[in-house]
Amino acid sequence: MTVFEQTLHRRTAIGGAAAAGAAAVLATGTPARADSTFHTTVEPGVEFVDDLDLDPAAGLLPADPLLHLLRRATYGPSPASIAEIRRLGADAWLDRQLNPASIADPVADQLLARLPLSGLSIAEIRAKVAAGQLKQYDWTPMWQLSFAAPARAIWSERQLFEVMVDFWANHLNVTCPFGDVWDSRTDYDRTVLRKHALGTFADLLKSSARHPAMLTYLDNRFSTRLAPNENYGRELLELHTVGLEYTESDVKDAAKLLTGLTVDNATGAYRYDAANHVAGPVRILGFRHDNATTTGGESAALAFLDYLALHPSTARRIVTKLCVRFVADEPPAGLVTELVKVYLDHRSAIVPVLRALFTSAEFAASVGAKTRTPLEDLAATVRVLGYGPPPSGTKTFESLYWMARNAGQAPMYWGPPNGYPDVAAAWASPSGLLVRWNFHLSIAAGYWPADLVKPADLLTGMIGARPATYGALIDATAERLLGVRLGPDQTAALAAFYGKTPASQLKSNDPAVGWLYPYLMTMLLNSPNFALR
Amino acid sequence: MKTVTCCDKGRRRFLKTTALGALAGLAGSQLDTQLAFAADPAYSGDVLVLLSLRGGFDGLSAVVPAGDPAYYAARPTIGVPKAQLIGGGTFFGLHPALAPLLPHWTAGSLAAVHAVGQPAPNRSHFSAMEELERAAPGTSVRTGWLSRMLGSFGAHDPFDAIAMGTARPARVLAGPVPHLSLTSIDGLALTGDDATKPVAATMAALYRDAPPALAQTAGQLTGALERGRELRAAGYTPANGAAYPDTELGAALRDVARLIKADAGLMTATVDSGDWDMHENVGIAAPGRRMHDQLAKLAAALAAFATDLGADGLRRVTVITISEFGRRVTQNGSAGLDHGYGNAMFVLGGGVRGGRVYGTWPGLGAAQLRDGDLAVTTDYRAVIGEILRARCGVGDLSTVFPGVAASSLGLVTAR
């Protein structure tokens, strides 16, 4: 019983005449599409079929819009999530995901209970230090938060929420683990990123600006009246909000205005220190403030943050980044413009923007326009296999974390303040690909981590009864893992791996249905089809 | 038939695919055109080996300013006594643990530059390391300087640049130029891939009609795996009796030497050496003490690398050591050293005018210090820039180090 419904057999036999034809067409000057929207007028009543030969990704992915939504709005389709979205339909599924509090999440709750330090507040960590349960500067809470990340990405039911937490964790990056935020990074995750992930950007930004983790990471805690530190002021403008639209004078005034937002060294908590605030009028972009008193510095800074959050350039940067995450590496300009309006009309509320994005024609037309990053690949691998978490312990989460780290994308581990890159070109690394191909086998076959919960018999668990031929085995497994069959050349290549042809009879004692079956699963996970999102 | 290649025809040759003969029909186009080990004709400069000393290297322990009385006053228990220094300098002397490198110092293939560092003090490991590798402060440039240098030569083959000893992307190589991060040459292998289970060859076939971007990376990988197989099949024995220490650094440098000698087209390699963050118990200059043993390990690995390459091999190689910052001049209460600023760099290679310390010494008097740290009189980028010009054939430094002029220390001869 396959979980993917075979929706469309849209394979073209590229490699022969069709490919040559496509190449010829392109060579005669057909412009490549600038974005992923279809500029094709379809007459009413005429079924529109796009020309697959012009799109190299065509046919590599199932066209089913439900599967497209799952690939983009989650860490990848799992058998259970496919069944669920088919039951609910796209709109109800999206409504539910945009309201994560309505989703019971017993499995993830149980996994997180094994990592009890991953959500500690600053005060709780310091109390444990005082009680001798943790060492001063102990990294254990940060490690637990790190190991929780793959567990949440793979097994949480609140998939879109987790994707958005990751999105904001990159947008407002504070490296984890990082020694200087040993006591504040778990609190930052819980009270800033998770609390506001689907709220308003204005609240999220103000929350991050008054959090010890951010103030430490970007040095504002050390910014003083006599020596303002410009690091946070600059990144606030350049990375968190308007982008590269500021002058050095804007940075200087922003740094001045932000003086006093600091950390209490005794408690580790956020503190506004009026004695270190630089009073006096500021002009930053279009923001003006008398900033007349040192005691009023904090409210002046908050007014500035509100101004930034609702600035049209900020709106454009945020929705562009959302489009890069969910639609295409080069987002359709029309969609960006439309979403900027939604963002500003809703005063930086995230849910209306996401709803408009996922229900847009441009989104629907973007099948195959995104490539999985290493972390997305890792999570999608475990999810599509449908493997479950072990009944106890955290070793598996640690293994998955180190796999992501070896592939170059351990959650929250990016050092610079700009967050992990989100476009295919940044991840096109042969050594990164080697790590991914190796972890596909390791996970699928159960070498490492060894205690994921898998079907007792992989073949039966994946595709049910043993097919009659090698071709049928490859087709069924491809449909199960990729949602499509491969073309004849690729199918023949996979059969040749076993020294066979697609027509060869499959016998019950053939290695292909025994110890070599994980290799077929792996090669399909290594395929360009699975690399796409 | 579309084929995926990752290099120009000048670097290819035909391979005899014996074990994979059965697959020739489906993957032949990939396998018949694997890469030869021939230097990229576009690049005739030195192989640049960038050795990053992570954690904040104490240049004042390695290259001791013995002629500056303030040094001994600031380090009463961990200063290296004059009598123990080696290298025969009048003002500076080398830490005795660096003895394995003394022959190269004496022969003139090893030099040091002192009081070098970044243009502004930055005592955060994380951020200083980031700045060190981005090397473009005050700009919005986010690439690594080594990637920009490679880009100026149009490097496009993954074997042009290797981060050796790690599977993770090297920040200094961050950018559009492909490079390989390898834990080791022996680790450049696809699990389970062998003559009876030709995974890599099958993957080449699966990617034949893939979108170009995906096909290119997959083609680079399958090509690299093939070269990995060849390198492993050839085996490796270091030359000239070189004995690499059994350390991560030793293993990484051994693999770099292996690639250099295989003529794999290597232009640059990055290697890391960690554990330099000695906030406590630096120790006296004696075996069993922390700084001594760390320096001894570093020296043993570098010396083995130089011995292995031999004088001829070293003629087209330059090794540079860098670190995110130096250490505080005055020892702290734990007989350790806190984060500082100015530092020493080592340069090792056939084109080096060695046996001496370059740079402008600012002095260690209270008035000369920068917040208690050795001042920086030479931007580290200017030093590297001089080497890039003289040894690597970089004509225009402006893309590599925006706004920085090469130094004219004369520490290397022009190729």
From TrEMBL, chain A:
Q: Which domain of life is it from?
A: Bacteria
The protein's matches in InterPro entries, at most eight in alphabetical order, are given as: DUF1800, TAT_signal
Q: What is this protein called?
A: Uncharacterized protein (DUF1800 family)
TrEMBL record, chain B:
Spell out the Pfam families in the cross-references. DUF1501 (PF07394)
Q: Does the keyword Signal apply?
A: yes
Question: Signal peptide span per the entry?
Answer: 1-38
Q: Which keywords, in A-to-Z order, does the entry hold?
A: Signal
Q: Does the keyword Signal apply?
A: yes
Q: Which PANTHER family match?
A: BLL7424 PROTEIN (PTHR43737), DUF1501 DOMAIN-CONTAINING PROTEIN (PTHR43737:SF1)
Q: What is this protein called?
A: Uncharacterized protein (DUF1501 family)
Q: Source species, please?
A: Actinoplanes octamycinicus
